[in-house]
């Protein structure tokens, strides 16, 4: 495992880390015992950074992380997020009183005295423009409740706006082989300004594992069922915004990237690791096996210049026009 500085902060994190949405909820059935084993396996492989949110299982993923990292609070960094437990469009959700409440509840569930990275969880553009929430975060940072803060964004415009605030230390963005647009302007600008990049939805909600056929069905409590067309939240969070059947077709066309590599998923993650602007990539998981498979990415051969050129051309010619929702 290799480690990279999170922007210009004093935090150095594993280049491959993990997101914990799946073990919290909204990804079908989970098993806490297996989730804890998987978290332990990840740490055994050198993973020292996990991303979560207060709404993942109504705080359940934070509680699981507290159990898994007990005694390792100084070794394992945790990033969590806030705002989606309330009305994301209301300024009241971002008031000092409300954000403090979100923060203290997360600290309690995580059993920590300070949050390593506190992120606004995909807020509307107008909220970012007002800037009120950043003032609140500055105060919490001054009090020592948070170490650094950042923003999880849906669009390039939102990301670029956040970069205007010098205290934003990390951006979390949807980025994968089927969602390459951040490479054009956002990622280079963030690197230039010393802002860390956390790549989420790296396997396009499982499309880039290659395990699905167009007839696959998902559990009703899985967002890949109830949000596949953006009915519950931004469609980009599910399959990167691509219609499922089209996504399966595109993933099949990308199957060549596993030639000389172990898995389609580890190859897809390797492509993200090859982008110098990315600090860490955070695939999800529910089992030890999935953790092991994803960790393979750090050992996969890097993509050649020719492969990178072909993948960029494939995105422009066959993928970009199929992405739905603002991005």
TrEMBL record:
Gene3D superfamilies, sorted: NADP-dependent oxidoreductase domain
GO molecular function: oxidoreductase activity
InterPro entries in alphabetical order: AKR, AKR2_Oxidoreductase, NAD(P)_OxRdtase_dom_sf, NADP_OxRdtase_dom
Domain NADP-dependent oxidoreductase intervals: 16-314
PANTHER family for the chain: D-THREO-ALDOSE 1-DEHYDROGENASE (PTHR43312), NADP-DEPENDENT OXIDOREDUCTASE DOMAIN-CONTAINING PROTEIN (PTHR43312:SF1)
Full protein name: Aldo/keto reductase
Organism: Shouchella lehensis G1
